[in-house]
Amino acid sequence: MEQALPYRWDLLLRYRFIECIALWEGRLTTRHLVETFGIGRQQASKDINTYNRSVAPDNLRYDKFLKGYEPNAHFKPTVTQGLAEEYLQLLANRSELHRTFSSVALPHANTEVLEPPIRPVSPELLRPLLQAAREQQRLEVDYVSLNNPSREGRIIAPHTLVWTGLRWHVRGWCEQNQGFRDFVLSRFRGIPELLGEATQHSDDDHDWHKMIELVLKPDPRLSDAQQDVVATDFGMTDGYLNVHVRARLANYLLQLLNVHTGDPLADPKAQQVVIANRTAVAAWLF
To answer: Which three-class secondary structure state does DSSP give residue 234?
Structure first.
């Protein structure tokens, strides 16, 4: 059983937030706490000072040029595990901090939540990626893929981190391919090097901003009774489910819903749901 920490639940959340932001963004200010927890600036300052004095002595130091706190060289996670997943899930759902920090003692009897395996991402990788996205900068980093498992240098201009429900990737301009691509975070290698202002930005990624409608329905090969079961499972109306999604994220959503995008499976019970408007959205499927 995990050892209970000697802090009130609300304070523990804020201390973990302080540690998480400082470690992964490399800069923490009172504004982070004020905007996230709805507390006053004086209370936020007190929380940071208490964290640095009593919870994790000297983990942080104030930098007058950054106008905020940054991790010391000997920074050691104390109230978090120091995993990228904690910060990334914080990005995914700031309004539900208890899902970000799994060790917070919340009532969970009679429930069980499956979580995908954690994919390793280091602070040294994530910080410059986030900085480049915020400041619209280019960066150079090594990348591997199944098609090219050897480390290959890439210059990219990231603009958005994306959680697909199974893994994290970053969307950005790739100078090698002269186009916007998705890069899986756990496939970056080495430490990125910032190269200055990007020439391609999020506004130039037209496919990213394009919204499409996916229309899903039960596999027509199922019996009427079976189709009713599937329609109820998915909350369909009159046998259809209409989902609006970014065009470039459509395939990830279908994978998450276990909707097969290739040739029909032999067993309709294994497939259950099909895309009713496949022709209209075929360009976005892979």
So the answer is: coil
- pLDDT tens track for 165-210: 888 899 999 999 999 999 999 999 999 999 999 999 999 999 999 9
Cβ(250)–Cβ(285) below 8 Å: yes
**For 101-135, how does the pLDDT look when each residue is reduced to its tens digit (9 = 90+)?**
444 444 445 667 677 787 888 888 888 999 999 99
Evaluate whether 231 touches 222 at the Cβ level (below 8 Å).
Answer: no
Give me the residues paired with residue 160 across strands: 171
Indicate the angle between helix axes 123-135 and 84-92, nearest 10 degrees: 30
Six token digits for residue 1? 């059983």
- Give the global pTM: 0.72
CA atoms within 13 A on the CB side of 114: 3
Instruction: Give, in order, the Cα–Cα distances in Å from 49 to each of 15, 32, 80, 104, 191.
Output: 10, 14, 18, 22, 31
Structure tokens belonging to residue 12: 């523990």
The position carrying tokens 């069980």 is 112
Contact between 183 and 162 (Cβ < 8 Å): no
Cα gap 87→101, rounded to integer Å: 9
Residue 212 pairs in a beta bridge with: 245
Q: Which long-range contacts (CB under 8 A, 24 or more apart) does 240-244 make?
A: 240/215, 240/216, 240/276, 241/215, 241/216, 241/217, 242/213, 242/214, 242/215, 242/216, 243/213, 243/214, 243/215, 243/216, 244/211, 244/212, 244/213, 244/214
> What DSSP element (H or E) covers 93?
none
Range 83-102 burial, b when 16+ CB lie within 10 A, else e: bbbbbbbbebeeeebeebbe
CA distance 123 to 25: 8
